[in-house]
Amino acid sequence: MAAAMQVVDTQGAGAFSMRALGAFLECDPTAMYRHFTGKNALLDALVDSVVREGAATLPETDDPRADIRENFRQLRRSLLAHPTLAPLVLRRPPGVGAYWERSDHAVAQLHRAGMDPVDAANVYQTLLFYTLGHTLSEARQLARAVEREGAGAEGGPVAAVRPPEDRHPDLSDVAPHLRDDNEAQFLAGLDLILRDLPR
Amino acid sequence: MAAAMQVVDTQGAGAFSMRALGAFLECDPTAMYRHFTGKNALLDALVDSVVREGAATLPETDDPRADIRENFRQLRRSLLAHPTLAPLVLRRPPGVGAYWERSDHAVAQLHRAGMDPVDAANVYQTLLFYTLGHTLSEARQLARAVEREGAGAEGGPVAAVRPPEDRHPDLSDVAPHLRDDNEAQFLAGLDLILRDLPR
DNA sequence: ACCTGAACACCGTTCAAGT
DNA sequence: ACCTGAACACCGTTCAAGT
Q: Is B199 within a domain?
């Protein structure tokens, strides 16, 4: 799996193949079928390991809102560390499986902040889907750079919108306020969703 | 393109190939290279057509909030109409290109409701990324069904969470409140983000 | 138990050749 | 202008054979 992740990170998930992994490990491409049922299972395992990354050490301070922020911030960072792999999280149902610890932590903090279960369920799901949408979009732009120039390339802002001004006047008005800093923009969305968390 | 969409919808985007399209059109698989630079360009065109679907006829009533809801509700429905194609929206930068009309409409309604440009930019992006995250997650579950049973299959709820109760007590508390109705759940998230839209 | 290598049924794309 | 068909360099996966 470590080798597979290395191939994915350096060549991109698109160039990852059983044959490429075999070449990297200097073994026959079919040897992996002893250890994984196939390419899909291997990729699923990689994705799950990324989602689980750091989920066991999520903070629990006296500020539940900050702890929730940190939870999703960390999920974002883990996914962005492997931009070409990130879109494959959609292969797994969200919120279950590898997400257990993370989900439980987020819901626990919402509960701790005095939110009732109905609101907590709603807020939790909105946070998760927002994070996935934002992060996968950003990852795609990053991935484009990786696939062109190899590992370590940099991507531009996720939404540097420059619409044709004459045809879309309203959009042109807000365009300057779409932040260049993707992380700040991401956190602003989290805060919007968490805006009236009790206390 | 119509033929390509038909192949994608019936066989699934995973089974879509130049050779499959050639067989469907009863022509040589390489004939398409006269009309599209390659498979990627063809898929991008399909994705753009889905994103643009209905964007020209978005409502503009005296209730801006309802109009925004309808905008994203419609984007969700268009994407879910082609569940195996939906994840490929990530191939295109969000909010630009095929999104122009849709983005401009949403921002115009936020503006019309009295929101200042900074907040409008933040709310708009949060709505878009939330919608993408929610919809692509739902589409994947639907796609699984399509690929197993062919077109027209039904998927389950996007998040019927049944966590191991002993290990994740907080999550178990909210699980019953995660709605089975995916559309209702989706709209609840939109309303959460739009919660204090002026007027 | 684990690895090898041939084989099968596929891919996207290019290019010379046809009409 | 458009289509064909051979060809190239790839895929994932299976299976009999080895150690």
A: no
